[in-house]
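Retro notes, item 3 of 5
We never archived the inputs for the pyridoxal-5'-phosphate complex last cycle. Fixing that now. Sequence and ligand:
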Amino acid sequence: MRLAERMERLGTETAFDVLARAGALQAAGRSIINLGIGQPDFRTPDHIVEAGRKALADGQHGYTPANGIPVLREAVAADIAKYRGVEVDPDHVVVVPGGKVTMFFAALMFGEPGAEIMYPNPGFPIYESAIAFSGATPVPIPLYEETGFSFDADEVLARITPRTRLIMLNSPANPTGGVVPRETFDRLAAGLEAHPRVAVMSDEIYSRLLYEGREHVTLLSYPHLRDRVILLDGWSKTYAMTGWRIGYGVWPAALAEKATRLAINCNSCVNAPTQHAALAALTGPQDSVETMRSTFDERRKLIVAALNRIEGIGCVDSAGAFYAMPNIGGTGLDARTLQDGLLEEAGVATIAGTSYGAYGEGYLRLSYAAGTEEIEEAVARIETWLGQRANAA
Ligand code: PLP
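Structure as it came back at the time:
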């Protein structure tokens, strides 16, 4: 068989590898605490499950419009108006099987050999993978611990070349838990006026998971960028619906039709019952969202404080999502060695920062989508393991 050369360039999400290794160790009888996984440890709220079940029972078994049922796209537009204060046309919403699909479509739409696409590093690994797969050159945007894992707007603007087609951004962020401050977005948005051909994909999938009074800033709120911003969001994190596979993109007027065409070629539509469940999520009670957020908030405080008590580890506050990204420089270990040692010997699944790009060296990602007892036990195991190593040295 002779495969296309681009298959060599496709990356992966190592969180799934760690999950498989953790599962194998558990099956062999080992006690493993999993802080590697990036999904809420909650069930989808009952009223949402019920809406999906009812749709199935009512005979919603066929294809739907490729971009999603109109009532769902209208609900998405209403949700964006409510939580982001921005009006969008429901016809610019394209419902797809998960948040990831919008980023893949964006990479395919803008990427080709000779083009450059920028992406945050450390960042969600599929950005770099999808960009490379498209044939474009991935250009990293370094994120800095000193600014709560934000980027430097001037540095981003300075890296724009005549080949730059698209900038991918993510706030609140995976894997850092960082939230980009409004001033930084303002500065970037102002600078982009000088680059009218550069589009932006704003991954805002964690927009409802913010702490310490932090505000969500959407790139859609800058009027001069409206015709070149793609908003990526979905239901996976906000409503604990990772396994349902549904998300959406809000595309500029000129691109919505093209995104729909990609959907027609690729997935036809999202399965109908899931679209009805997603509708219930947006239009139904929102108290479960706040319950999850405040639970994550408690765990966040616990894990950050506990990590900071360990010698050799320093952890800045996680302001959003459900990840902590401690600096492990003081342990003397590289990220991969620490990840493997913790999994195999201490029984704690975490993810090496390098799984999120080269700038992740010196960091570990811990998900706090786990119970407080598990978090306490995991951090205790990490401390003991590091202590034993230090004593043995
Ligand atoms: N964007 C970011 C930043 C994520 O962390 C994730 C999932 O982990 C996604 C997108 C993809 O979400 P989905 O499961 O809806 O495809």
